[in-house]
Amino acid sequence: MSNYICKVSKDVIKAKNHNQDVLIVNLGGKMWLSTVNDIARCVGHENAVLVNDFKKPLTEKTLRKANLIIMFAESKMINLNQLVTTHHFGTAWHQKAKILWIVPATASLNQRLSIVSTFMHFGFLDVAVVFEKPFGIQVEVLTSMTRHFSVYTNEFNHSLVFPDKLKSMNRFMYSIIVYDQPPMVRIVNETVYSPLVYFLLAVAHVQNARLSLMIINDYHLMEKFWYDRKMDLTLNTGVLINAPEPKLQTYVQNGYCALVPLPPKVPVFQSIFIEPFDGLTWLFLLVTVACSVAVWWMFRGRGAVDSPWLLAYGMFVIFIGQGVNFSRKNRLVLTFLLELIIVMVWILCNAYEGVITSFMIQPIHEYRLETFDDLVASHYEIMTDGAFASKISKSEAYKVLKPRLNTSGQQLGIQFGYEIKRQHYVFIIKCDRAEMWIDLHLGQTEKKVSDFYYLMQQKFLLYFEQLEASYMNPFLDRFQYFMDLSFQAGLMQMWKLLAFENSKMTRTIKSSIEAAYLKLEDLTQVFSILVVGCVMSTILFLFEIFFHDILKELKLANLARKLRNRVHQMALKKKKQSKNPKYQKGALYYIVHRHKRVKRLKARKMKVRSIYVQPRFPLD
After folding, report:
1. If both were cysteines, with which of 168, 195, 241, 288 could 495 make a disulfide (CB 3.0 to 4.6 Å apart)?
2. 295: containing domain
3. Residues 317 and 337 in one domain
4. Total-model pTM
5. Which helix (H) or strand (E) holds 202?
6. What pLDDT digit, counting tens, does each position of 485-534 carry?
7. Are 588 and 577 contacting, i.e. CB atoms less than 8 angstroms apart?
């Protein structure tokens, strides 16, 4: 037995370099004294050896330095739980340590099984039981996956008994527990996993391991599983275990979001045409219309406007921000203004039609909550998980919120399914879950969660997700290494997008469409521009009314000047042509025609100054 253990010890610690590589614990007293001394002399030539006779408790420092622990059991097989509790095996250890239990040949199978299963329960991966049989030495190793013994005889190869499970998770069942929020969402006939589940599945596939997912609704039961070492990792990043457990860093920022019931709908006309304006705006518009009517009434006999239909049309054009010339004499200007008004009315009608259509597609509701402070100031009852409730209960800034907090006795997703149509509660969950839930269909119907709830945009209580792991977890460093690689390679982002695509999420597309809609703020700006146009058009209208005669005289004077210059040029031309006898008859005809034209202008009683030109030749 001594030579065999010595050979195994040298093979196991061959590549190790520690100050105290081997720890020998003698629990059997004088029964194993000679064997212990032989092994200590054999191994001590090349490695540091510490022998403990079990009279003094093992220190934490000793356990952390030991790379190989050889334990000699007594014939009665002492209480293993007392051993683990008294000698720090449950709190301090070296995760790469290997344990060899030397037991008497009289030890039963149940006793040997309890040794291996107890130490593996506390995180030791490589535990073997060695005892001597009449035909030779037998080594038994418990496989964590199959829960059966693997038996090796004299041809003991330490690479078979103690494989490096930290490099390959073969034969290891990884227990993962989930509290309150399930790691997957069932949608019709497909299952959508969270990004962390995709990560764990990828690691298990690469490392040839198996995952066991457990969902627990009771927080106290979860704590019991945690302290009894019945789980290795939790996917719930919101639960804070009191013990300072190690954590797996995910580098993913998350927070809490609120799903708020949709408020009652508001009539479209009231939302578009009444609410965006205050009393002063409407008063100004009414005063402008009244002034226009008064000015028309005062100057109705001056020929500018002589039809009430034309006045109504002009007031409408002024309201939409366009001026109109009420003088019906200048038909060219009227035609131009009419075409301009038609184009502007067409543009504005299309704009209003787009606004109304967008509000018909996306109905308008009453005031929506935007921040967490708005939620605190509201009257809503809140349904959330125990983690958020515990955080809020410890906060002095949100004392008002404590009486309105309700925690679900079952899974929050199931409670949400019961309450979705009642709309009694505001559900506060993690933002990644909220973004997935908001677009889910309700069973086989076309209705979605977004038909009853809306997602509040602000995230609160932001944090970086950390997966709490068991203190005896031997694979924490290995998982952290894979997590670092996955984050650097962008796999976590890819798995998040994969979760959204598989669940037929349209959150990003829907947000871009909502951003393209014309909102009430934009509509208010449009109407503000129209008010400015109304003021300018009213001023232009009053200017045209008061200065109508002056403008007409100026236009006629300009026309007379042009006509006089034209007549003078024609007279000079005719004078030159009159010297030629061939053109005398034509010149005489021109003068007579001009004389008749002047008479017609006088007959129309137009106020033309200096239009009549005395002919040079008398008309006899």
Report:
1. 195
2. 268-364+521-546
3. yes
4. 0.43
5. helix 195-207
6. 888 887 877 777 776 665 444 444 444 444 444 555 666 666 666 666 66
7. no
